[in-house]
Amino acid sequence: MDLGLTGKRALLTGASKGMGRACATALAREGVAVTIVARTVETLETTAQAIRDETGASVTAVAADITTAEGRAAALAACSDPDILLNNAGGAAPGNFRDWDEEIWMAALNQMMLPPILMMREVVDGMMQRKWGRIVNIASRSVKIAQPELGLSNGARSGLVGFTAGIARQTIAHGVTINNLLPGIFDSDGQREHIAGMLRPDQTFDQVWQARADGNPAGRYGRTEEIGAYFAFLCSQHAGFVTGQNLLIDGGSYPGTY
Description:
With about 260 residues, the protein is of the alpha/beta class.
């Protein structure tokens, strides 16, 4: 299927590894010029070169912290008028809400909710003027299946999803779609960090890792390439009638009918 993306420009945050890298690679394969943003220079440059070598696409790497105004400015300076924006950020560590003071909560909001909203603010008007744009936020299934140990993510990501629901209905008539991907368990560094942070003394990492896979209806973890492919389709010319949606990609773990 031709996704109709050749010649488009994409700005992707959190794109040096895991799901963000898979999304950048999927777009590059479709002829998109990608600008990837992350904080760690070495990992970022390695990823950029790997995508260039595989796809031959134009890849610009920007080492920046999107949670800061300076970082957002650097990203937008490198790709000022993107056709596609991916907002991707790591989650907060698991824990007990009784241990989280105001400072911890504000840090969570400034990691998972506010930067994507501020990035959308910077690019959405230009997309609407050009009559084409795709914005995708990678959130979490926790906005539909709240996980007790992930209260910070439950709250902050739900705020992002709630904001998106309103703005997505304002942009669609101008050719701009805004959607959220809600991944479940994926074979990624983020998943490994999550499990490591919730182990009990009587558990080993391998035990919990395998139990989570066994407990999923698919019997496995998702592959990052799968979310990359889903993302690329959402960005395509074929997905212009899909907006304001929270799209689970979780191997069937969400138990509801709707």
